[in-house]
Amino acid sequence: MKKEELLNGYFSHSLTPNQEQLFESLLAEDAEFKAQFEFEKNLKLAIKETESERLKTKLKTLETEIKTRKESDEKTQWFNWKIAAAVLLFMSASWFGYDAFFGVNTVELYATNYVTHPNTVFPITRSDTINSIERQAFVAYEAQDFDMALTNFNTIKNPEEYILFYKAQTYLELGDLEKAKGLLNKNTTEASSFIGESHWYLALIYLKQNDIVRAKKELKLVLRQQNYKRQEAKKLLNKLS
């Protein structure tokens, strides 16, 4: 199968399991193929985001005009409303047709499903007498002071696996997806109590990067775990299939 056909199959979500395997292999081993993939992915993402904002703006403007327009002639007014409604319907159809042509809006799926993971390992109480670096890190994390949280997490020597997970969360909040990915991947290979959670957030990162093949792979790994985000993972897989 030609490389161009593989790329087209990826962006149209029509690759077979064997083709997905070949695609991932080329992505890992062929620098030229990876560069072409990144270029096309970023181009489609930029086009989608630009078109999305343009259509939303037009729809909002038209809706405002419809609401504020007052015609003295009732018959003419009714006619104008019918025209406006038809235009809105056409634009909405164009909108959905556009999404169908370019595929799902992965950035929107990321935004819809992403929630900062709560602190479930280090309860913070006012009566705490030991003000350790770990406590300071989680206090900053809960206060959403992620710069300070990262500084404190980085200070902890020989961190437990859960520290790595929350450090990855901190990187996510700060927008450093690659560092977050590295730590989350580590949490899936070592003895960790956050394996399912790590696969879930990896899937979301790949969604944000419009890498649907890897996102689906991570979501399937979420389903292999016990109960964490199973329903959400199933829904996302259905939307990506």
From TrEMBL:
Highest taxon in the source lineage: Bacteria
KW Coiled coil (keyword) present: yes
Record key words, sorted: Coiled coil
Coiled-coil ranges from the UniProt annotation: 45-72
Keyword Coiled coil applies: yes
Name of this chain's protein: Tetratricopeptide repeat protein
